[in-house]
Amino acid sequence: MDKLLKELLEAPGISGCEEAVAEIMKRELSKSCDEVKIDNFGNVIAKKGKGSKKIMIAAHMDEIGLAVKHVTEDGYIYFIKVGGIADMVLPAQRVIIKAKKGDVVGIVGTKPPHLMTAEESKKLVPYTNMFIDIGCKTRQEVLDKVEIGDQIIFEPNSGVLNGSVYYGKAVDNRACCYEMLKVMETLGDVNAEVYAVATAQEEVGLKGARTSSFAIDPDFAIILDTTIAGDVPGIEDKVSSLKLGEGVAITMIEASGRGTIVNNKVRRLMIDTAKENNIKVGDTILVKYESMKLQEKVLALINVPDHLYDVRDESELYPDRKEFGFAYLSSNEIKKNYIKSLVMKQSNIKDEKQFDLYMKDFNYKD
User: pTM here?
Assistant: First the structure.
């Protein structure tokens, strides 16, 4: 496996704690781009080239994970989920708590099935009834090692199955971060400013994509993310005909049009370009997820099919949002008051003073 890809797959970086991944992206983008910075929100923004038009390429850095919530008197850790995670995959997972004093290994536990009542054994154990055991006997012993709020990642791993199928802790979306780095490495002279943006906090509401697009105000955006391949048992072709290793997917319509509808000219451009370069593509119409309604720029969404063995359950936390990396793009024509009301609502901002500080942090100019 490529050394850089392995480094990205195994780096820690749940939503809001992407610093380790951001440093990798900054280091690598500095080799191919004219300017690179990390903004106040944690997005890595790199620029290459000159021209009157702005092109934005975005891939999110963050991964789903957990965070320390409470420690019991007898030394067990209760946690919250960061991002959408299906409870059924959590028991017996080995995890790493990224503590200030160093990594702490733990195992997610539940009440033993041997001691469950007949009624309990019929039900899925909710994560609120799970705990993490790090081998300590008292609350103070735990708190000497970790703090409330520490990020918890699944034990890092990566590798190759059967010589060609790659797996890893954070394929979603480090695979596309790697892809974006390679695009910027090979990109020649173009008559445009090309921005490569590694975004933060996608898994909890696409937040970094929104703030970075306000700052850049691109004319055209290409969003890179993973999507679900349909070539596993239980999925019919009419639900998903995408197959692992059979090319990228181009998202056309989401949620019956309530989400993104990619402009026909853009869709045709993507498909024709792929054909001219002998790149396999598949079209995606997502029916489950939908995005918010700020869609003022030309979009293209490119997904890389992967086998996600349902670690995530996005519908639990965000039933009305899109799963795969859609950047909310601003436009000069949007009236300031409309932007203000939209941002205040989405970010739960209560007064205009707080709003002004919020937008100042992200270098937004109307």
Answer: 0.79
